[in-house]
Every structure is written in structure tokens, then in C-alpha cells.
Amino acid sequence: MAEQTTDTELLALFREPATREKAFTEIVKKYQERLYWHIRRMLVDHEDTNDTMQNVFIRVWNALAGFREDAQLYTWLYRIATNECLTFIEQQKKKASVSLDEVESGLSNKIRADADFDANKLEWKLQLAIQQLPEKQRVVFTLRYYDEMPYEEMSQVLETSTGALKASYHHAAKKIEDFIINH
Amino acid sequence: METPRDKIIAELLEIAPFLGRTAFLRAPYAVPVGYFTSFTGMLMQRVRLETELVPEIGTRQEIAKISPLLAGLQMKNPYSLPAGYFETWKVPFPESEKKPAKLMKMGTRTRVIRYAAAACVVALLGIAVFTITKQRKITDPITDLANVSDQDMANYLDSDDIHWTPGISSTEISSVAFNDNDIHDLLSSVPDDELEQYSALLPEDKGTVN
């Protein structure tokens, strides 16, 4: 299968039983890294990210036949991945009977526990700062800052108006800068 | 021409200048070597299992496929048991639970005794009611006079100063007990005109008053 195969072509191949698996494999290969990093920045831990990644693509496999192409495939994939991340965080909260704040401090602890963690390095401070943000702002900031996603596409992923997304991003960036400067 | 990244940096410099100058620091997390190359294969295996694209295999075949080492160890049990353990082992019930519970059978015999007791009560009540009713029986005096002896009756009449001789009818009594003088004495206080009116009403053979 050619490298330049478009999403539309891959979807057409997926709908054919004979080429279904191959088309799906191509879709996974095309988007796995982007989705991995989106999930990893939300969940921090690799194993949690790996489990969530698998769940995301299982969902994609089950729902892709009914996917309508009025949205872009990649925004649809991001939407599923974001929802899976939020579900995972919610489950963690229920399992441990702790509040969301405690889950967030748990994520900060996971960052500090990383073998490569260096409190003096800016990139690690940035990760700690991101974990201080409320859930929604965290998603908006990472999608914009790391994935360089335009507000229009982010609006499709999060089903929120671009104005609200701009405001969220603005607040998030301010908070992160304050955190980095003061820590 | 301004790229999307340029737009984001310009925006960030305006909102948070420090963050803008350090724009697009990559996340410092490490990924296991070869993760992305093996992920697709691992995922497709799970997809096939979950969507039943492959027929289900036996547990021994399954573990043999995943790990031949574990498959070899599957039937090897390192623990030992005392000889004949399962043959002699019993559920250790407490002493109180060994005794069978006493069953109270509600059989035919009990039912018969109950009915007999009820019949006795009914019979006693019946006798009592009968006895009381009999004692209070109102007798017919006219009927009972037939049972009274003539002597008793004569004694009774004597006590009331009634002259009566047994064996003589009431017609005979009147003819025997009363004579003309007695009648004359009895009627002496009755005015003559009333006697004459009475005599006129009587039949001719009895109408003579002296």
C-alpha cells in the first residue's frame, strides 16, 4: 500500500472485507505516534498509555465502518483518544476513591518518579505545570502547544466553540508560565 | 507565508512571553525501544481475538503459543498432600449441627384426638341444655288431670270444702244435693218479679218455682 494513501482511500479499503485488516493496519501506523503522545501527555505513565491506546484502536475498529466522512478521520481519532483518557482518569479516581485533585497530584508524582526526571530542566517543569491545570484546559493546551492543532479542528475534537477554546488556552498558558517562573 | 506554527508562537508570545520563547519543547518522556513497530502487530492480535476472527483454542494450546516454558510447567504441581487425604476428609460440622432436627408430624392420630375432644364438648353442652329444658317444661293442667287419682282429687276438693262423691256425675250431684227447701232458701232474697221473668224464659217442665 502506497505511503500517500489518503484517509478517504483507506476508509474505502476498510469497507471491503478482503482489504479490511490491511487498511486498518495502515490507519494505525499512520496515527499511532500522534495519538500515543497525546495520550501519554495526559496520563504520563507508558503502561497506562499503552492500555488506553489499545482501547482507542479497538473502538476505532468497531466504529470505523459507520464513520461518516463529514469530519476528518484524524479529528475523530483524537476525539476517541481524548474521551478514553478522560474515562481512564475517571476510573482511576473511582478505584482509589480519591478526588480529581488527588489524581492530578498522583500524575505529578508519576512525573517525579520517572527515571529521567530532572527538576532543573525546563521540559520537566513544563510537564509538572501542565498537570496543575484543570482537565479541560490541560487537553486544550496540549492539543494546541504540542499537536499544533488549529482551533477549528480542536472545536470538532472537543465539541466546544473556538472562542471558548481560545479563552481556555489563554488561561492555561498564563498559569503554566506563572508555575514555571515561580517553581 | 505564515505557517500554523508561526501563528501559535505569535499567540503564545502575546499571552505568555516566557513560554513563547521556549516554544515547542518536546515532552521529555521516553518510549520503550521498538514500541511503535510492534504496537500494530500487538493491536491486530487483540482485534482478531476480540472480534473472533480466529477460532478459540484450548487453554493448553493457548499457553503453548504464548509461552512454551509455562506450557511445560502447567501440569507440574510442586505441592504434596498427606496420603488418602481426600478419602478421609469430611466437612467439619459443629457438634450441634450433627443432631437431626426433631420433626413434629401432624398425622392422622392427632387429628382424630382433636375431633374426639370437640365431640365431647358438644355432647356435654347438649346434655346440659336438655336437662335444663326438661326441668322447666310447662305441663298442660287439663291433660295432667287424667293422671291424678280419684282419691287425690277428692282430697283436693275436700280441702276446698267442695262436696263431691266419687262415681256420681255432676247431673246427679245437683239432683241429689239440692231439695226444694234449699232452693227456696237460696231464692228467698231474690225479688218475686225477677223470679217470674226467669221462669218465663225456662222450658215448661222446669219453669215451676215454688
Describe the structure.
The complex is a heterodimer of chains A (183) and B (210). Chain A is globular and about 55 Å long. Chain A is 76% helix and 0% strand. Chain A has helices at 7-15, 20-43, 46-63, 73-96, 100-113, 122-131, 135-145, 151-158, 162-182. With 183 residues, chain A is an all-alpha fold. Chain A starts with 6 loop residues before the first helix and ends with a helix. The model of chain A has no long low-confidence stretch (mean pLDDT 88). Chain B is mostly helical. Chain B folds into three domains: 4-73, no CATH class; 109-138; 141-206, no CATH class. Chain B contains 13 helices and no strands. Chain B has helices at residues 4-15, 17-21, 35-50, 59-66, 68-73, 85-88, 95-98, 108-135, 141-144, 150-159, 170-177, 180-187, 192-201. Chain B starts with a helix and ends in a 9-residue tail after the last helix. The mean pLDDT of chain B is 76.
